[in-house]
Amino acid sequence: MFINIEDIKKKYSNFKFDLEEIKKFENNIFEAYRIRSVETSLLKAFGEGKLDGTIHTCVGQEFSAVALGRVLSSNDWITSSHRCHGHFIAKTKNWKSLIDELFGKKTGICSGIGSSQHLYDKGFISNGPQGLLVPVGSGIAFNERNKNSIVTTILGEGTFGEGVIYEALNVASLLKLPQMFICENNFYSQSTPQDINTSGDIKSRFEAFGIKTFIFNTWEINNLFVGVEKAYKIIKNNSEPIAIIIQTYRLNAHSKGDDDRSADEINYFKNIDPLNIIKRKSIHFAKKFALIDDEIGDYFEESSKKESLDLHSYLGDQLPKNTSDFYKEAKTNYKGRFIEVLNNFLHEFASSNGVIIGEDIADPYGGAFKATKGISKKYPKQVVTTPISEATIVGMTAGIALSGGKVCAEIMFGDFVTNAFDQIINGISKYHHMYGKKISCPAILRMPMGGKRGYGPTHSQSLEKFLCGIDNLLVVSPTSLEDPKLTYKDIFSQKCPSIIIENKIEYTRKSIEINNNLEIKKNNISLGNILIKPKYNKSHFCIVTYGETARLIYDNYNKIVEEINATFVLVNLLKLNPLEISSFIKQISKTQGVLIVEEGSVNFGISAEIAYLLKDNCYFGKIRRLGSFSVPIPSAKNLEEQCLPNIKRICSEIHKLLDA
Length: 660
Ligand SMILES: Cc1ncc(C[n+]2csc(CCOP(=O)(O)OP(=O)(O)O)c2C)c(N)n1
Ligand SMILES: [Mg+2]
Description:
This protein is of the alpha/beta class. The protein has 28 helices and 23 strands.
């Protein structure tokens, strides 16, 4: 049944608050008041210009947080969103470090970087984009499912406009995850009343996924506390998701001052607000409330005098950034095709407790490209085959990684990583820094990219330039030139958020045929680049590339030399972000020019970044770039062939480079 704010007003018009009944919850009431006092003081500090940015207070809604805080145990988790202060205080009791956080102090829970909406403490995580943490909560619940802990995922009713929620509800229900969804229904999404934003009702949304759902409210505290306690017992015993809708009302503006609701409506709810009633009716509580206000006022004074973080201690990331002039022999000889080596590596990963998650990855199918073939049969608990839900696959991967699990996701076609960009940009790549370096998120995402299979415009792209544009994300393009297992081992040992761009054609390749005119060296750092040079001649020019193109050029080395009548160094980059140029700049410094070949289109692309770095590292030769044409990649073989970088186009660019 659909309920709007008028229904709620009618429902509670004869509401009688029973002070005697709730006295037994004295400490919980003090806690609710503490939340209110902290937030009221924060708003005051904004008004006085002592704080910047924004906050979203839960004044009027506090009992929802307290009802949870009183039942959750220390090994349970909460995921929350923008309106998270109450949840944070109720779960962690760490109100002082929350105040420090908002004042941007070093002692803030996230060193002052996350601030109001982005908080992390043991068992608690919040993030600003609506819905983002719902699948992350599912990932945490998956990782914690055998540890008798649960994850409570809190979201507002307005957030039910986000599609990722429905993906996560589906997966949580299918996998029977111990995840308790709490919808705090305050009947408004920012300025918009629920009936304008939400068709149908919320309870049946949960129930459509087979999730048992309860409804309570923050005015009948006894019912709320007892009900949440019962629900908690149910989820602890049954280990499958449940949902609670908590009807409530925020007494303040959405954030600091944005409020178009009528004064009459707000006053109505101020009058039935339990904390207001308790304060009015009980001298005992009123006195204690005043003491809480004093304590918090004193702490605001203390906090404002504390030291702030120096930005330099926050710079620097988890990505491998070392460099070395030393090169060693590359290990070019290995058995089997690239995909078989990868499959073998993933078997080992699963055997050492690693979780592999993605679409259609279980046996007998074993993934669209068979990277996971045979693994679910051998290690059924380690393979999670999911519905078509990329945002949830990546969100769950983040959750598993954040809670200490080893995990690797497969995106069936790299093209569809676009569906998970929120999780990558506003989640995975940010967690470490946003939470004051208190936590890391070594989520690994593998994705097949590239063309030459005739899959057409939406299944053949090389989207790495978009991923390389995201800060604090390792992006690697393994190659068949060297034993892929070494590359995968190297990536998995980095313990940082990582994207692996796998080329579909590379999957089919075996180790190279030795070209006796060439030497193949590898830079002696993690994921160092591979350098291929003529053994007996000097090099006239250089090609810098990665992925399948590197293999294509290696296989056609002699042909290119004949066509151009000049020899060259081939640099095969494994790491696309962070790019490492300094280790090969000396090796190519005397060449006439560099051609950079990119697998995707070149506009605002990787080649532009490499060109800048070459110049910045004092490369004085000419530079040209080549990529696929800026049109959707055609399916038809001859058209696709013309669209992508090929030997003919590469040679023509080299002519331009050397002739110009
Ligand atoms: C993906 C996304 N879109 C928009 C916003 C801006 N925004 C912040 S809170 C909010 C309203 C959320 O409403 P609801 O889920 O009902 O939570 P409430 O604010 O009522 O607690 C919006 C639109 C956001 N944070 N994330
Ligand atoms: Mg709302």
